[in-house]
Amino acid sequence: MKAGTNLEKVLESGKFTVTAEAGPPKGTSVASVQKKGELLRHCCDAVNVTDNQTAIVRMSSLTGCLILKQQGIDPVMQMVVRDRNRLAIQSDLLGAVALGVGNVLCLSGDHQKFGNHPGAKGVFDIDSIQLIQTLKMMRDEKKFLSGEDINGEVPLFIGAAANPFADPSEFRVSRLAKKVKAGADFIQTQAVYDVDRFRQWTEAVVERDLDKQTHILAGVIPIKSAGMARYMRDSVPGVIIPDEIVTRMEQATEAKEEGVKIILEVIEQLKEIPGVHGIHIMAVSWEDIIPEVVRKAVLMPRPVL
Amino acid sequence: MKTITEQKPLEEITQYLEKCKKVYLIGCGTCATLCHTGGKSEVLEVKANLEANGKQVVGWMVIPTACDELTKYALEEEAKTIAAADCILAMTCAIGVQMISLHLKEPKLVYPALNTLFLGMEESPGHFTEVCLQCGNCVLGRTAAICPLVRCSKSLLNGPCGGSAEGKCEVSPDIPCAWQLIYDRLAAMGRLDELEEIEPIKDWSVSVSGGPRKSDVEAECADTP
Ligand code: SF4
Ligand code: SF4
């Protein structure tokens, strides 16, 4: 075991794993994080807390993780390189480990242009692949990037993102390979709607044996309304929603029910794809639906290890 | 290579000049002329504008190349007229502004009329692109001669990110994704295997993060009269 977190244990056990994402508040309310924790604790193996997602300022991921941790939930701290240089990254990591956070997801971060502080200076001192390397070095060599020794252990279970649908599509497997080489223990992918295209990616991943060197969780985002489907199709970088799904949402009399139906169909197929070790549910501002989705996908109860 | 500039909003210039009655205007015959921001016609336009707003333009000139050391002599020749002005409005790039300020015999306020944007490469006639931020440790040899630091919106050394779609950057459909360009060029040369290597963390101490940079070279024309 690298960090011995619940997420690591469930993935290592070979069971189909479920993680979900919780966005921290645009404010100081502990209760709002706790509410999401309560909602998700029985239907997920770990919960990601986003890090100034879409470059909008929110409570820090580390704080959100700590609140979840106090509720007995295994948190995944997300960390973007947009907002921190190498000093801040390493010190935040020491703090996270000291407080018992073991899973960290390494991200570039959405460009600051998309957020509520578009005039901010993007840091990008190191990139997301170099962030993975940094964490691995801190854990395995117990050294800072400077080469100096770290006092104490740095148990970390290192995560990274992958977008099988981005371009250049031929490079997407190589990029995953780079992340694995850098030290990614688990991967959470961008939302899958086009399962066939996702399958092509996983086939190439399996061919390179990458699924044996890392754990891949396929991302899913339940769609709440036709408007949300259109918005994600047209305006969210990295997400690809086939027109057919947008049409289904537009024609549905009960949009929310249709959204759940679509996501369950996707999950059903994902379960059967070789190389996929679980799902990661990103129900942006619709976290309430997650227990129902997990239950209807016949993924309850979650294993206790 | 040209220094690309754009004129500041008139309100900002007006604010600068609030306490000045008499203004001396300086343009530049090189990059700013090419950008139509500080050539003779722009200088005269601003002159007319200032005069219409109650300012007195005591004199003006367009220095051939405001960023070079000959600026010193141009200022000396105009010293008398400049002495009569409360301030100088420089329609030059920021280097020109600083050059003028450095070589004034009597200290005087020099205000920039332009925003200096970037060092541009002329990709096609009249079309300039920022292609280098002078990072002090060039990686072009590993990126098919396309700079990931300025041409990728996130300065990724190991790109592309998950936002790259159909050749465009996630930031805007008007920005080509630098890493798609790098990929395509390496693919055309049959050298895609190079992209599997992880580019190491960058040393920013040789860039602006290391403090002001200086360089001493043998001067070519130290004794120009
Ligand atoms: S790598 Fe550095 S020196 Fe080379 S083009 Fe980019 S910014 Fe300029
Ligand atoms: S889309 Fe391409 S250019 Fe834009 S940030 Fe991502 S890698 Fe860089």
Folded structure, characterized:
The complex is a heterodimer of chains A (305) and B (225). Chain A has 305 residues and is an alpha/beta fold. Chain A has a single domain, classed as TIM Barrel. Chain A is built from twelve helices and eight strands. Chain A is globular. Chain A starts with 5 loop residues before the first helix and ends in a 9-residue tail after the last helix. The mean pLDDT of chain A is 97. Chain B is of the alpha/beta class and 225 residues long. Chain B folds into two domains: 2-117, Rossmann fold (3-Layer(aba) Sandwich); 135-199, no CATH class. Chain B has a four-stranded parallel sheet, sandwiched between helices. In chain B, strand 4 (87-91), helix 6 and strand 5 form a beta-alpha-beta unit. The mean pLDDT of chain B is 95. The chains are: A alpha/beta (305), B alpha/beta (225). At the A-B interface, helix 5 and helix 6 of A face helix 8 of B. The site of one iron/sulfur cluster (SF4) has 15 residues of chain B, from helix 8.
If interface size is counted as residues with C-beta under 8 Å from the partner's C-beta, which chains form the largest one? A-B, 34 and 30 residues
Strand content of chain A: 5-15%
Secondary structural class of chain A: alpha/beta
Order of helices and strands of chain A: HEHEHEHEHEHEHHEHHHEH
> Tell me, what is the CATH class of chain A?
Alpha Beta
Number of strands of chain B: 9
The H/E string of chain B reads: EHEHHEHHEHEEEHEEH
Give the second-level CATH assignment, the architecture of chain A: Alpha-Beta Barrel
Shape of chain A: globular
The parts of chain A where pLDDT drops under 50 for at least 5 residues are none
SS class of chain B = alpha/beta
Number of domains of chain B: 2
Q: What percent strand of chain B?
A: 15-25%
The CATH topology of chain A is given as TIM Barrel
Instruction: Characterize the biggest β-sheet of chain A.
Output: 8 strands, parallel, barrel
The pLDDT mean of chain B sits at 95
CATH class of the largest domain in chain B: Alpha Beta
